[in-house]
Amino acid sequence: MNIQTLTQTAKDLVAPGKGLIAADESATTCEKRFTSVNVPCTEETRRVFREVILGTPGMEEFVSGVILFDETIRQSAADGTPFPELLSKHGIIPGIKVDAGLKDLALHPGEKITEGLDGLRERLAEYSKLGARFAKWRAAITIGDNIPSEACIRAHAHALARYAALCQEADMVPIIEPEVLIDGDHTIERSYEVTAAVIKKAFEELAGQDVLLEGVILKASMVIAGKSAPTQSTPSEVGDATVKCLLEAVPKNVGGIVFLSGGQGDEQATANLNAMNQHKDLPWALTFSYSRAIQNPVLKIWAQDINSPENTEKARAALLFRSKMNSLASRGKYSDEMENERGY
Q1: pTM of this prediction exceeds 0.85
Q2: Per-residue pLDDT averaged across 239-249, rounded?
Q3: What are the DSSP calls for 289-341, one per residue?
Q4: Residue 219 annotated to the active site
Q5: How far is the C-alpha of 44 from the C-alpha of 2, rounded, in Å?
């Protein structure tokens, strides 16, 4: 384990004004999204769309890293440049999603566990050779009647810790993502309770595996009411509750914190991130690691004519705009009025 490499990569991932794009959708997820905009989902159309994103000029001003999928890290741009190399040439750090997805948690109806630890050491070695310098593992915690159970929280935390240790052994920064799902009608108070418990248990297990916290990035859920809750959370409420939760549950020496959008609207995710960054003198950087909240407008524009160079440029303009808005939010300098400045 190279401590200097890990700590420097973590710092670079949360550099001021920069965040991550999660372009790690599986083929199944891509099919759902492509179908929604009437685009056939083939390996080639997925490659073309990923090149729209990864080949966007100027993205490096707002984006520090991109999380790739197994298929994507092996693909290349139209000119033959492998995608990890394309990113690295522009100072953007390539990363890789390494978990194998969710399965039912035995003896616990309604709860899931993430698989993928078997063979992970060997896969990390291969991904490192392909250019990845960090990895991501997603846990998913559902809030419902009598769940999450302690068993579910503990199982996910232990898996995250074992994954993180293997990453650091390979000199790759682990992003741990203990996502508390936004689905449901739970209150923001219940979201706080579960999120704090999940994060605390994760860091307890990380300590048990001797993981270097300065070389870890937490990909956190926002503390927010469920999507079906009768009372929805305002950005101010989300910002205050999330920061309070993090201060309670996250060690101060963690390398940085990025947020998932978790089914929020594009502008909603930006406004909530901005509200968090109104809190000053926090021990860590708080920035974005969004997938749909950045890609949504890009996909819709690209789908209008996937073979048109002019249309591609419009899609890339949308990517740059959403990335810029989230960059501003990561500094606490975003406002709703800025949304009127979009040029696409």
Answers
A1: yes
A2: 98
A3: EESHHHHHHHHHHHTT-TT-HHHHHHHHHHHHHHHHHHHHHHTT---GGGGGG
A4: yes
A5: 37
